[in-house]
Amino acid sequence: MKIIEVDEEIYQYLVSNTQSIGESASDILRRLLNLSADHSPAVAAPEPANVERAPTPVVSIPMPAKPAVSNVQPEVTVSKKTQSQESIMHVVNRVRKVIDSEAFQQESKGVVKFLMILTALYRANPETFAQATESLAGRTRVYFARDEATLLQAGTHTKPKQIPETPYWVITNTNSQRKMLMLEGAMTSMHLPTDLIDDVRSYFTA
Predict the structure, then answer these.
(1) β-pairing, 144-145 with 169-171?
(2) Which is more confidently placed, 69 or 206?
(3) How far is it, in rounded angstroms, from Cα 116 to Cα 167?
């Protein structure tokens, strides 16, 4: 066995043709040159007597690691920010459709307009409406609940009314200013724009 030196390019070529872990440079070259797998020379030179034979050095070329191939297709996701903006615009459009409607414009009772806007807020996004109403409460009153009894327990003169097309109830024995404060609190919690809130306010101010 002879030891030879090869340059970097030859070494990389050998590495790229490695087929099994621990395969030696000699084995790779024999395979590439279509030589016999027998490593013994045709005529072996006699060894000198009483000379200890050194072990044959074997150069092993490590197999380059292959990148793992994943069969999982990448998911296409929409950012939370984009989803939130789309959700907000949906609520805005729903509320504007209500306040621009003929029924709303011709309604003379503030409590009915109050309930119409609350219905629009809930129908546009029930989840954010639920979160918004849970955070609204006075020092001695509960403004929103899922049943009439809860509001009656908070005060016998609260005049609870069910918000149409929703599972929620709301107190109604409040003046227009207080109703607007309740609407503003809910709309702010739902991250609706101030220009929409100002438009709604115009219907609850003298």
Answers:
(1) antiparallel
(2) 206
(3) 14
